[in-house]
Design brief:
The protein is 33% helix and 26% strand. The chain is α/β, with parallel strands linked by helices. The protein contains four helices and five strands. The chain has a five-stranded parallel sheet with strand order 2-1-3-4-5, with helices on both faces. The protein has a single domain, classed as Rossmann fold. The protein is globular and about 30 Å long.
């Protein structure tokens, strides 16, 4: 049985390209790429692994995602974060802190 992965992006061209690259490298995993402004907790809960990527810190499309991550426990899940910007990686780690997911940086 294959695992399910969700890749949440800010919708920018470079991040969407990176998301497609990540999706193609996931073995035995069915990945779905969604824009953060289309995100709902129901899309995240069935995922075995998830990824979050954006170009710059605090994109407006991440407002709801940030709020959800404050109130959900994902302690047994792995989360890959990706961005070409080091400050954005710090931001992504920060918004994931309270949900307790195991965060790993995915190199672009």
């Amino acid at each position: 049985m294959s695992k399910k992965a969700i890749i949440i992006t800010d919708g920018t061209e470079s991040i969407n390209l990176a998301a497609k690259e990540i999706s193609g490298k996931l073995d035995n995993c069915k990945a779905k790429i969604i824009k953060a402004d289309k995100f709902s907790p129901e899309t995240l809960l069935p995922a075995d692994i998830f990824f979050i990527g954006c170009e710059n810190p605090k994109p407006s499309s991440f407002n709801y995602l940030e709020d959800v991550l404050l109130h959900i426990n994902l302690a047994k899940r792995e989360c890959g974060i990706f961005s070409p910007n080091e400050k954005t990686l710090v931001y992504l780690k920060k918004i994931l802190k309270d949900c307790e997911a195991e965060v790993k940086v995915w190199s672009l």
